[in-house]
Amino acid sequence: MIEYKTSKEIASMCEGGALLRSVVKKIQPFIKIGVSTLEIEQVANKLILEAGGEPSFKKVKGYRWATCLPVNEQVVHTPPSKRILKNGDLFTLDIGMFYQGFHTDFADTYVIGKTDAKYLQFLETGKQALQEAIQVARAGQRLRDVSEVIEKRIEGAGYFILRELTGHGIGRSLHEDPFVFGYLDKPKNKTRELKPGLVIAIEVIYSMGTREIAYEEGNDWSIIAADKSMTACFEHTVAIGEKDTIVLT
Q1: Is 247 exposed, middle or buried (0-12, 13-18, 19+ CB in 10 A)?
Q2: CATH classification of 7-247 is 1.10.1420.10, yes or no?
């Protein structure tokens, strides 16, 4: 069941999202060659607490970190580790903050140092897909409209939506109804209408070589592209208003 938010609740989420943005901005200087993902985790955890929030991901049963920090073929849910970032890596910062009773969720993928132009284009396509999805996420549209834009941009560029991984509703719980797919899964009239008060985390989760995922060997959480090709994830939390859509993160 969808939990629609009041204007007061959305205002709280907007404040929390702004704080999460400030946390991300402070983390970015640490995303560089020679830094371990565990070091980035430690910085992120400290900054979330200093901002007056709590790490959302630590509220997921069994998960004890403030971030998920995939590298290259790792796509989501990868715990921090002693893995050192090196030149040419694609690194995803996936982070959430619980503030005044509500979660916000954000992800971005970065190039470490210098890389081949094909990887820069790969990431640029994901950024464009997310922005286009946000633009169509308006009251009166349907979830299918969001999914269609993502699929068209990503798969039209020759990349692959990882279909078992989706965006989601968000609020008092980190993961709420509805699912927000990155591909067309059913006819438009059978998907939900976007109504004011709906808050969703729109995610563009994709790879260079496959639609299939696998679980990383020796890691209880980390999901990878089944063919071990490069992956990326871009995510914003957005609130549907009467006239406008607010990007909370």
Answers
A1: middle
A2: no
